[in-house]
Amino acid sequence: MELVCGCYEQVLFGFAVHREPGASGQNEKWTPVANFTHHGHAASLSAVAVNNRFVVTGSKDETIHIYDMKKKVEHGALLHHNGTINCLKFFGNGHLISGGDDGLICVWDAKKWDCLKSIKAHKGHVTSLSVHPSGKLALSVGTDKTLRTWNLIEGRSAFIKNIKQNAHIVEWSPGGEKYIVVTMNKIDIYQLETASITGTITTGKRISSVAFISDSILAVAGDEEIVRLFDCDSLKCLCEFKAHENRVKDICSFEVAEHHVIVTASSDGFIKMWRHNPNKKTPPSLLCEVNTKARLTCLGVWLDKVAHTKDQLPPTAAPSPVKEEQEFKTSPPKSDDSEGKQQQSKKFGWTKDSKKPTKAESPMTVKKRKMEGILEKKKKKKVQISE
């Protein structure tokens, strides 16, 4: 188990969590230990996603970086988006879905890292997206004040709902029977069958993150130190607790034997893990904490053996038309297909709506592109001065 988090300081942190049996009559002891830090982005990190092999991070530098957690190496970068990467979601182990300021939603093959589908999803920014547990539907919200439902079987828009405000979070429940849409400090709960609002939860401060503990229990964090657990059916607050000394930026949860674990990250630099028993209305108890001494922005938990329902999205995500092809060398191939080769050539192409490559580039290639851009800007400035 490993905690991964990004920050404004452009660094990705990794903390391995060691679990030790407690003394007689005491709970298990959890201890986070610093495992790695990586400064791969040129701007603050804005999103993180994990599956059982990779961690991917999105940034304001318009790139998505890929990290192989089993080999502990950077795997490359995806450069298709033209704007800040606002949301990243894995579906199983086979696909990654991304959304950004350019209004695009991209579906990526999480094994070959090809861009399988690029959809112009919103007129404004894509602020959040979520894939239904079945893999047949996806939801997205954006700054065009719309909630859009996507039919992933046919690869097209299925339904568009106008909402009065810009929503910044959308999330399916674990069972897929309901979903929530967050606008500022309000959470609207929808039923899938009727696509209508069945209830609304309102908090005092802007909501920054939510996480379903179960189909009926929702953890809510915002621009304050408090985390609250709500019942989605009764709309009542089951309990609340002070999690941090500053606003909570991100929250996630997973289940272990006999209880749930809630993980929170804050602007105060701390990552904290909490033990929660859903059968009790008592606040969660602190399992462990670690101080990163950075302003955290996004959070994920990498579990070495993650159980997923499905690994494949429906076969709708056909590759986008290739305009031009070019050769480049990737990171060393896997041992099972290398056959003694030290390097392997792969191809990438451009889609019609972007001049950026749609396949992962090596870390050195990405840095070279950034340096070329900086040098080009300096040359233009010198020309203007001389004129």
Automatic annotation (TrEMBL):
It comes from the Eukaryota. It comes from Monodelphis domestica (Gray short-tailed opossum). This is p21-activated protein kinase-interacting protein 1. One of its GO terms (biological process) is regulation of signal transduction by p53 class mediator. InterPro entries: PAK1-Kinase_Regulator (IPR051959), WD40/YVTN_repeat-like_dom_sf (IPR015943), WD40_repeat_CS (IPR019775), WD40_repeat_dom_sf (IPR036322), WD40_rpt (IPR001680). GO terms for molecular function: protein kinase inhibitor activity. One of its GO terms (cellular component) is nucleolus. PROSITE patterns: WD_REPEATS_1, WD_REPEATS_2, WD_REPEATS_REGION. Residues 312-387 are annotated as: Disordered. Keywords: Nucleus, Repeat, Ribosome biogenesis, Signal transduction inhibitor, WD repeat. The gene is PAK1IP1.
